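Please, structure for the following, as tokens.
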Amino acid sequence: MSRDDVLEKLKSIDTPDDHETFLRSQWKDFAAFAWTNFLQHGRGAIVVDLKHAAFEKSGLQMPAYYVAEGSEKLRQHGGWPNAEIVQAVNDYDPELDVVFLVWRVNDDIIHYVATDDLTPPKAYAAKQRKPRKKSAKHFFKGDF
């Protein structure tokens, strides 16, 4: 698949509805990941990097990583992209919510504050009880 074909396919799934569908489908993993990083690094957001996604034999591989408030990575990039994201990161309840930043194909960043009955601490606890499967590559690689 050429890079142009990949780009067109990524553009076709780069919609708020598709973002929400993807985030919901991976909620348990994302919520546990957010809680782990909150405990280690403090408040922050999960960046879902659609701009640098790729289609491989195993399917869509989309980098996703945690950026903490006050981190060196955040400083290197000049802080949060806008005041709405600053407010979302400052106001979310880490025991209930996860802040997602979706880095879109057109280089825009859209944010979501999501919650579910399976809270981040509960998702983390559930993952600790189960034997670990191979984790999906697209969750934990990438660079902001």
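The two ends are 26 Å apart (CA to CA). Strands lie at 44-49, 54-56, 59-61, 64-68, 97-103, 109-115.
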